[in-house]
Design goal:
heterodimer, A: alpha+beta, 4-stranded antiparallel sheet, 11 helices, 12 strands, B: about 300 residues, Elongation Factor Tu (Ef-tu), domain 3, Rossmann fold, 7-stranded mixed sheet, 6-stranded antiparallel sheet
Chain lengths: ~350, ~300
């Protein structure tokens, strides 16, 4: 992989230049109150690459909270037409664990019957990643993410103090850098590696990621599920902030004019009470403990079985969002180990 | 002022969510809640195999997964029996012949009719479980010589809820298959309580008030003793019914020494997208819409709460 470097000052000019070119929508991490969010950049000055975590992961650009899939005129079946809305988009500063999550989403939406609504959005995106520069008390990414983030990143920024080292991951990323004031990298690989990892996680998965699935399967009937399930409010916060939760509901809406309608995908989640209800009202996951178990197993076993990589990227957002303080998957492992 | 994104809306020609158009050609009520529909696609056959389902939609109301009830066809028609349980199925019930619906599919796995050639088949169908099972039953009857013994057990709540009554009568008359049926109860008084409800069709309720049910009364497992010896080595059971039925049917099949790889079931879940994405139909690591709805029981028996 080619390594280049650029001064921070020149990097900001590069971002400004890209914004003025208006060839793509430019998104980055900005501060919002005391938190950080991904949003459209107004100026490179707003870009905060020193953030701890964003409220929502960047999945919202590829699977919007509400997404129109079909348009139609009510009662006219012939009028169904599939639509998609996207612009070329460049996103600055996606932490490596969120990139790992995008890799999982890519697999989920392109394996088997590919979902063009997602795939087209991704094809028109350029992802510029980074490594955390600030502690976040719930994060345990280092113990669950391997190097799968390189499969989706186009460029990675490594903060060296006054400069960034840029890891040029893809051809698309390389082309994007044309015309910027880049220099050859002069840092040693060891220095770069140190800069990528010097912020240590405050948490870790208590077992190694390779045995996690087997470990949980052995504890399928453990009291942990009821213990955490009993505390759950079924509010769904954990699944909505999760970068690897992509489940959705399909609904239809009619305009107030009654002249036009649309079929939409909206975020949905297995922690919500009615997620597994069927036509006659039977709920296949009626108990909170069953829903809690399903979500945890989905991250630890079902997604890895399908897509090889661990389904939780350790971002810590769920643990932060959870009012009952039960959502972090690492907590389940901790509880089981303590009770053994 | 920030620009509003996105500003590009494009037409997707090949969306997996885009339905085709089918026309309702025939419609007839079957029970107080269930109506038979025959749909026709414009220029091709649905191309389904027995046991698969399709998503049927009404613009402005929504979409619902429905089992196909007819065997594979060479023409563009396919049949469904739809129970009125929600907004989409109610809207389908109110369609007139000649009106149109959206169709996506077929989706899911099918009953392995090819692999079962040369074996005996034992169908166990409860209530509207007969709807998907009928596609396999009719297929087996069309290819009668490919199979050894064919036995069909059908049970429903009461005589007014029997489906495909003409066909049940034909099956009863045939001497190359075994057919037994039962009802849980002959008491139709519950329909009086439902008089406030908009029952699609009161015909069979009124009919059975004046007629006496002479056949078996009891749950479907009370039909098992009527069967002659079932050879567990050459018999495959195809079980389709409400969740409560599976447990007891499987217990009885185990008593007959059928192994789990000789038991084939079709499961009901809420298939919202039909293409293994939305997560609604997921049971543990399985997506019912893609890995099912038809399963060999030995592939799923390890899952708690699967039936």
């Amino acid at each position: 992989m080619e390594l280049l470097k650029i001064s921070k000052k020149n990097f900001l000019s590069f971002v400004d230049k890209k914004m003025s070119e208006k060839k793509s929508r430019i998104v980055g991490v900005i501060q919002k109150g005391s938190h950080f969010v991904f949003d459209d950049l107004q100026s490179s000055k707003d870009l905060r690459l020193d953030y701890d975590v964003t409220i929502l992961p960047p999945k919202k650009y590829f699977q919007p909270q509400k997404e129109v899939m079909l348009k139609f005129a009510p009662k006219n079946v012939e009028s169904y037409v599939a639509v998609n809305s996207y612009d070329p988009i460049t996103i600055f500063g996606i932490h490596y664990y969120d990139l790992a999550a995008i890799y999982l989403m890519d697999r989920a939406f392109s394996d088997g019957d590919g979902d063009e609504h997602y795939i087209k959005k991704r094809e028109n995106s350029l992802l510029i990643g980074s490594y955390p520069q600030k502690h976040f008390k719930q994060r345990f990414s280092r113990s669950v993410v391997k190097d799968q983030y390189y499969k989706v990143a186009d460029l990675m920024l490594v903060d060296m103090g006054d400069e960034y080292v840029i890891e040029v991951v893809s051809e698309k990323g390389k082309n994007y850098l044309k015309g910027s004031q880049l220099k050859k990298n002069t840092y040693s690989l060891k220095q770069v590696e140190e800069a990528k990892t010097h912020i240590k996680d405050d948490q870790k998965l208590p077992v190694t990621v390779d045995i996690a699935s087997e470990f949980l399967t052995r504890n399928y009937y453990h009291s942990v599920w009821k213990y955490f399930g009993d505390k759950c409010f079924s509010c769904g916060s954990c699944v909505f902030v999760c970068p690897t939760c992509y489940c959705f509901d399909v609904c239809e809406e009619i305009d107030l004019t009654l002249a036009a309608g649309q079929r939409i995908k909206v975020w949905d989640g297995c922690m919500l009470e009615n997620f597994a209800v069927v036509a006659d009202g039977h709920n296949f996951r009626r108990d909170r403990a069953d829903r809690f178990k399903h979500r945890t197993f989905r991250k630890v076993k079902y997604l890895p079985d399908r897509y090889r990589y661990f389904g939780c990227v350790g971002c810590g957002r769920c643990a932060d969002a959870c009012t009952a303080d039960i959502a972090g998957p690492n907590k389940v492992f901790k509880y089981i180990l303590e009770k053994q | 002022m920030a620009e509003t994104y996105p500003h590009k809306e494009v037409i997707e020609k090949t969306s997996i969510y885009l339905p085709e158009v089918a026309t309702l050609r025939e419609k007839r009520p079957m029970t107080p809640f269930d109506t038979y529909f025959s749909f026709e696609l414009r220029d091709h056959s649905l191309g389904h195999r027995p046991g698969q389902f399709a998503e049927i939609s009404i613009p402005g109301i929504g979409e619902a997964p429905i089992s196909v009830s007819s065997p594979p066809a060479t023409d563009n028609r396919f049949e469904m029996v739809i129970r009125k349980v929600g907004t989409v199925t109610s809207a389908i019930h109110s369609l007139e012949v000649g009106e149109k619906v959206g169709v996506r599919g077929p989706y899911g796995t099918s009953f392995p009719m090819e692999a079962l050639k040369g074996s005996s088949l034992l169908f166990i169908c409860g209530g509207i479980g007969l709807v998907p099972a009928r596609s396999a039953i009719k297929y087996a009857l069309e290819h009668r010589d490919d199979y050894k013994n064919i036995s069909i057990l059908f049970g429903c709540k009461d005589p007014a809820q029997r489906l495909f009554v003409d066909e049940l009568e034909q099956w009863k008359q045939r001497d190359d298959i075994v057919f037994y049926e039962t009802v849980d109860t002959t008491d139709l008084s519950t329909y009086l309580e439902m008089s406030h409800m908009d029952l699609s069709y009161r015909g069979p309720v009124d009919e059975w008030k004046s007629k006496k049910w002479k056949d078996n009364v009891g749950v479907i497992t009370t039909l098992f003793p009527k069967l002659d010896y079932v050879d567990p080595r050459e018999t495959y059971a195809i079980v389709v019914g409400p969740p409560v039925m599976y447990k007891f049917a499987i217990m009885n099949l185990h008593d007959m020494e059928l192994s789990d790889d000789h038991i084939i079931l079709s499961l009901e879940r809420r298939m919202k997208c039909g293409v293994g994405k939305c997560g609604h139909c997921q049971i543990e690591d399985i997506y019912v819409c893609q890995d099912g709805p038809v399963f060999y029981y030995n592939d799923i028996s390890y899952i708690k709460g699967v039936i």
